[in-house]
Design goal:
Elements: H1 2-16, H2 23-34, H3 37-53, H4 57-77, H5 85-101, H6 108-128, H7 136-157, H8 162-181
Helix pairs in contact: 2-7, 3-4, 3-5, 3-6, 3-7, 3-8, 4-6, 4-7, 5-6, 5-8
Length: 182
């Protein structure tokens, strides 16, 4: 009886062990943005910046990031060259951190464009680093979901006191400088 229970419990895992089910891709996609400090900082900062702008920016700035990041992911997965990807990612942390630290109130279109520009680099990195055994759509769904989660955390963090946001934004910008130099 015990053996039958163990076998029944293993069936779902054995089914996912075969390629083509996308579970590996989803897990890898979810993990990729969460395991890199550069990605975490930039994506949370996008949410904080959106919260500082408020109104329609709360969803338009993160949505523009997600849309362009998906495009960058397709480019990276397809092997389309994009120069200075790592520098672009580091600069995203510097610029977004400074924007949060100084509480810049850019026009909505500028904030969306800035988020989109940096999203291209982040998406390209995600797409270029897709594991061979990962399903592409599942992987993309994973990194988009993780990014949306980080944006949401940033929007929530945007409710912190302005002084705390200045310190956090400044610290993030300094981390970006370290990323750029190192």
């Amino acid at each position: 009886m015990r053996a039958a229970v163990v076998m029944a419990a293993m069936l779902p895992g054995m089914a996912l062990a075969h390629p083509g089910h996308g579970a590996d891709g989803l897990v890898h996609g979810l993990a990729h943005p969460l395991l890199g400090l550069d990605h975490v900082l930039a994506m949370v900062l996008v949410g904080v910046m959106a919260a500082q702008l408020s109104g329609r920016a709360l969803w338009l700035v993160p949505a523009s990031f997600l849309l362009v990041m998906a495009l960058g992911g397709v480019m990276g997965a397809a092997g389309v060259a994009l120069p200075f990807v790592e520098a672009g990612i580091a600069l995203s942390v510097i610029v977004l951190g400074a924007a949060v630290a100084f509480g810049l109130r850019a026009p909505l279109a500028v904030a969306m464009g800035l988020a989109g520009l940096f999203a291209l680099f982040h998406g390209h990195a995600h797409g270029a680093e897709i594991p061979e055994n990962a399903g592409g759509l599942a992987y993309a769904a994973g990194f988009l979901a993780a990014t949306a989660l980080l944006h949401g955390l940033g929007v929530l963090a945007g409710r912190l006191r302005p002084a705390a946001l200045r310190v956090a934004g400044g610290a993030a910008a300094l981390a970006g400088v370290v990323l750029l130099l190192g």
